[in-house]
Design brief:
The structure is a single chain. The protein has 53 residues and is mostly beta strands. It has one domain. 0% of the residues lie in helices and 23% in strands. The protein has a 3-stranded antiparallel beta sheet with strand order 1-2-3, with no helix packed on it. The protein is elongated and about 45 Å long.
Length: 53
Amino acid sequence: MTFKKSEFNSDSLIVFERNQHYLPVATGSPSLITGPKVVHFDRVEWQNRTGAR
């Protein structure tokens, strides 16, 4: 995932987009910590909602 600095707003939004150049390692088996990783999302947005309950 690539951090999108142009869309960053410290009060409300952090954005990551899929790295189009990433290729998982051909050897090994996927696990939680090691091995090739499979990206399931094209974009992730963290929205900070201060004061909301």
